[in-house]
Design goal:
The complex is a heterotrimer. Chain A is mainly α. Helix content of chain A is about 75%, strand content about 0%. Chain A has a two-stranded antiparallel sheet. Chain A is globular. The N and C termini of chain A lie far apart (about 45 Å). Chain B is an alpha/beta fold. The N terminus of chain B is likely disordered. Chain C folds into 2 domains: about 55 residues; about 90 residues, no CATH class. Helices cover about 75% and strands about 0% of the residues of chain C. The chains are: A mainly alpha, B alpha/beta, C mainly alpha. Chains A and C meet through helix 7, helix 8, helix 16, helix 17 and helix 18 of A and helix 1, helix 2, helix 3, helix 4 and helix 5 of C.
């Protein structure tokens, strides 16, 4: 506990530095703006703004605080287009449309927006409090993780990914393998041999992470917008003057609490982020509270549930990222890449070696949550106006921002062509129902997986037994089996199948 | 440290000869860090930027040219910017190894002009505080009788400068580098975590990174791979040479220029560095960036580079890294 | 069908990847039993299995994109390539003006407004990013050439 308090003191000293405080606010503001743009979810928003934040040349803690603010803000902003337009910015906001949009259509847009801001705040704050308690504990414990334990952790990460993301498991797996294959390009970290570099010096150290992220997410997003383009403005519901009431909060308080817990713990699971958390939370809440069948018709609990959960999940996903170096979601994979670019290896040692960064980030999340609530309640009308930016200006703007970001890193115009190519590839993947999160997770985790496996085998002198020699590894393998089997078992139990139908055909 | 002393002595001699406040007139001086911001090359450039400030007529810019662990920059300065009089590029002993093992392409160490050093770091043999090894002799005896009995780790791949320390260690016991049980980590932080977590028994690190860990008392440095004892806070730690092993590993950090720079332009930079070496401010800047003093410029550095390249290629070819 | 075409392309790339993993990659010596080649080999095999699965049982029949949309997408990609190629020669302001205007026009903005948008994006973008935030956006080779000429001229005078 003392460690937590002194850590928080360190963190707040960093985050309350006037410059960093300003960055938290700016990050939240611009994050909300970009999150509110129709069709651009948090992951794309962070991907587009990341290189720019990086190029500004701030010290690492400041740049990360800015990015975390953007990440948080974008998660918040995503709900505006969900509620007013019925267009979710990303998978995590899909559940928000179910009751949020009906509320707005019933003439309660202001009430829906303010309620979701409060629910988001509660979920987010809950997660940060739990994070500041859990993360140092987990970090202390994780110092004892050997390379063999990391291998088990990777198996667990990919197992949770496989069972929870995507419609077609084959495509999810292939997506992850594509990411893993991209990660093998460059100099092998064990033997120093160059792989798949074809003599090009630019990729000796591997394909630049920013290029992959901006290409696969930002540029693919642009192509999707062009493809679905409807000329002119989108029809948006007006923000009225209705506002959340105390009785609303009293009515939703247990929903918010329950869903915050659900969101946080699902967020911790590697590979699953806000989308799974909000879906599970909505489903659970519907089962518990929906006695009158009002869910889906504008029930405020149906709105509060996914909002609390996806913000709690955003916080939860930071826990494995900070303590183990393993991202819990696509967006945290991007933040992890950002840390690596500053030569900061996230993981158990970060709390000991770079406390100003680990704790500064945590403290800035406390502030970010408050800042978002303060920004959002009065300014929601302004953000809502972002929705009326005509698509024909918004779309080219994405490319302009992405180009600025990528060009300013190194000043190499070839990179601009590279992101265009990757964008096209990413667009095809999306069109064919591949989820992009496994690709980016595979890309980020690929090196860790391979290197730890080979490290473990170098330590043991080639004895594969080292992989199952420790109780920590065994526990993780057990959990990996559990996350794969449990959903199947639950689905089977909940859905009595007709005679002769094959197992799992119901999905 | 003899080298440093000679360097300082020379620099003092130079500064006596030249007017005290002579500034080198270099237009738009630039230091290229061949990596992303925040890494070792960035730090190296910051030393030049701050340390040279009083000795240049214009302020120095630091720019970044990441790609291929420095290969992109090395190729650039061997093809298009060969006579760029205003730019220096940061290098380290790791870059020399990459030149030796051919990772930088066909260009050799003779294709560029070596300007000056920013400072140095030295190898360190580190164990956990509760390790059975109390001194280097015990470790070397075990490594000598069975190289595979000790799990050694460091922060770089085979053929990297971190691995080179292990190769030297095992060679000193009479073994071959291939026989050791070496685990490559991704940087020193991971390797230290593995040492503390008990996955590896010996960590081959650098002195500079150990400063923050000395106080915690979790680790013990068995020997420092420097030619002479270091100053505080390492004054108590014996060198490997003192303990009777010929183990010296100096990590140079410094700067080079394109190979076709004119002698006059090259001399401007060398003068600026030598003028800076003579000042106490330079030592401050060096220390602030975690570097130990080792000041070599001009011909001295060229000689030191030739020397270490010869040594590195010896070990590398023995290990089969060069055909 | 769309699945199969895409999987076919992936198959070709993966085959090349596998070929390199099985023939070209090797280290002079290694401390772990896997070496640099085993991991790519495993990945290649898993990828090939997945691709085979998709070829066997595709689930996306068609992309459902009209010919007109294909045309628009192709134009977008071409515009991006042109934007990338002109980034340094023309400089940020001019290249962004051209790209912004063309894209906005193509996506249905009124003519004058599209040009206004392109101009604003170029100028405001440059002012904010290059002047205010200090990012290194290209000025343009033409502009730069003009600049250095005046610079040397003034120097000669002085």
């Amino acid at each position: 506990m003392d460690a937590v308090l002194s850590g928080l003191a360190t963190g707040f000293a960093v985050a309350l530095d006037p410059f960093n405080l300003m960055l938290v606010l700016l990050g939240c503001f611009f994050g909300t703006l970009i999150g509110a743009l129709p069709g651009i979810g948090p992951i794309n928003g962070v991907a587009i703004l990341l290189p720019i934040a990086y190029g500004l040349g701030f010290p690492p803690e400041s740049a990360l605080i800015l990015l975390a603010g953007i990440y948080y803000g974008a998660e918040y902003g995503g709900r505006i287009s969900s509620i007013l337009l019925n267009v979710p910015g990303d998978a995590g906001a899909v559940m928000t449309t179910l009751d949020g949009n009906p509320m707005a259509r019933n003439g309660e847009a202001g009430r829906a927006l303010s309620l979701s801001a409060v629910a988001s705040f509660a979920g987010g704050t809950f997660a940060v409090v739990l994070m500041s308690l859990f993360a140092p504990l987990l970090a202390t414990f994780a110092v004892t993780f050997s390379p063999a334990d990391y291998v088990a952790l990777m198996v667990f990460a990919f197992a949770s990914l496989a069972s929870l993301v995507g419609k077609n498991p084959t495509k999810t797996l292939l997506g992850a393998v594509i990411g893993l294959m991209l990660a093998t390009i460059g100099i092998d970290a064990n033997t120093g041999v160059a792989r798949y570099t074809f003599g090009i010096p630019d990729i000796l150290a591997g394909i630049d992470f920013l290029i992959v992220v901006v290409g696969l997410f930002g540029m693919a997003e642009l192509l999707t917008l062009v493809e679905q383009q409807v000329s002119g403005k989108l029809r948006t519901l007006p923000v009225d003057s209705s506002f959340v009431r105390m009785t609303d909060l009293a009515r939703t308080k247990w929903t918010i609490l329950r869903c915050s817990v659900i969101g946080f713990f699902i967020g911790i699971l590697p590979g699953t982020g806000a989308s799974v958390a909000s879906a599970v939370a909505y489903g659970t809440e519907k089962r518990i509270s929906d006695t009158e069948g009002t869910f889906g018709k504008g029930d405020m609990r149906g709105l509060a549930a996914p909002e609390a959960a996806n913000n709690a999940a955003a916080g939860g996903a930071m826990v494995p990222m900070l303590t183990l170096g393993i991202p819990g979601s696509g967006t945290t994979a991007i933040l992890l890449g950002a840390l690596l670019m500053f030569n900061i290896q996230p993981g158990p040692m970060m709390f000991a070696q770079r406390p100003e960064i680990a704790w500064g980030l945590i403290a800035s999340m406390y502030l970010g949550n408050v800042a978002l609530l303060v920004i959002n309640l009065p300014l929601v009308g302004l953000f809502a106006r972002m929705l009326t930016i005509p698509q024909h200006y918004l779309t080219p703007l994405i490319a302009i921002l992405a180009f600025i970001g990528i060009y300013t890193i190194v000043g190499n115009p070839f990179d601009l062509l590279l992101i265009t190519g990757l964008g096209l590839f990413g667009w095809f993947l999306r069109k064919l129902d591949f989820s992009l999160a496994p690709v980016i997770l595979g890309f980020v985790l690929g090196g860790l997986f391979e290197n730890n496996l080979r490290r473990a085998l170098s330590i043991s002198g080639g004895d594969w037994g080292i992989l199952v020699a420790d109780w920590k590894s065994l526990t993780l393998y057990g959990l990996a089996v559990l996350v794969v089997v449990l959903p199947i078992w639950l689905a089977r139990r909940n859905r009595p199948r007709p005679e002769g139908a094959p197992v799992g055909a119901g999905n | 440290m003899t080298l440093a002393r000679i360097g300082t002595a020379l620099a003092v001699a130079m500064s006596v000869a030249a007017p005290a406040l002579a500034q080198s007139d270099i237009r738009t001086p630039e230091c290229v860090a061949p990596a992303n911001p925040g890494g070792g090359f960035d730090l190296t450039c910051r030393v030049a930027q701050k340390g040279l400030e009083p000795h240049l007529t214009a302020p120095m810019q630091v720019t970044f040219m990441p790609g291929g662990i420095g290969a992109v920059a090395y190729n650039m300065f061997n093809t298009t910017r060969t006579d760029d009089a205003s730019a220096i590029v940061a290098f380290s002993t790791g870059s020399l190894l990459n030149i030796v093992t051919g990772k930088y392409g066909a260009f050799t160490e003779q294709d560029v002009r070596w300007v000056a050093t920013a400072g140095a770091d030295f190898g360190a043999v580190v164990v956990r505080a509760d390790s059975e090894y109390q001194d280097l002799a015990g470790l070397m005896a075990d490594l000598g009788s069975d190289p595979a009995s000790v799990v050694v780790g460091a922060g770089g791949s085979v053929g990297s400068q971190d691995w080179m320390k292990g190769a030297l260690l095992i060679r000193e016991t009479g073994g071959a580098p291939m026989d050791m049980r070496y685990v490559a980590f991704d940087g020193g932080g991971d390797a230290i975590a593995a040492l503390l977590g008990g996955s590896i028994e010996v960590y081959l690190g650098d002195v500079g990174e150990m400063v923050s860990h000395l106080e915690s008392g979790q680790m013990r440095i068995l020997g420092v791979m420097s030619p002479e004892r270091l100053d505080e806070p390492f004054a108590e730690i014996p060198t490997a040479i003192e303990q009777g092993f010929d183990l010296e590993w100096t990590i140079l950090r410094g700067f080079y220029m394109g190979g076709e720079t004119s002698d006059a332009d090259y001399a401007k930079w060398v003068d600026a560095f030598e003028a800076a070496y003579a000042t106490p401010e330079w030592a401050e800047v060096q220390k602030a960036q975690g570097l130990l003093p080792l000041n070599l410029a001009g011909a001295e550095l060229e000689a030191a580079i030739a020397d270490s390249v010869a040594r590195l290629s010896g070990v590398a070819s023995e290990a089969g890294l060069i055909n | 069908m769309a699945d199969r075409i895409f999987a076919g392309v992936l198959l070709a790339v993966t085959m090349a990847y596998a070929a390199i993993a099985f023939t070209a990659i090797s280290a002079p010596f290694q401390y772990d039993p896997l070496g640099p080649e085993s991991w790519p080999r495993i990945l290649a095999v898993v990828a090939l299995a997945c691709i085979a699965g998709i070829l066997w049982k595709p689930d996306t029949e068609a992309l459902g994109i009209a010919r007109q949309v294909w045309f628009r997408l192709a134009a977008t990609v071409l515009a991006l390539i042109a934007y990338a190629e002109l980034y340094e020669p023309l400089g940020f302001v001019v290249a962004t003006f051209l790209y912004g205007t063309v894209m906005a026009l193509m996506l249905g903005a009124p003519r004058l407004r599209a040009a206004g948008f392109g101009l604003a994006a170029g100028i405001i973008g440059y002012l904010v990013c290059a002047s205010l935030l200090g990012l290194n956006l290209p000025l343009g080779e033409l502009v730069e050439a003009a600049f250095t000429e005046t610079e040397t001229a003034t120097e000669e005078e002085g």
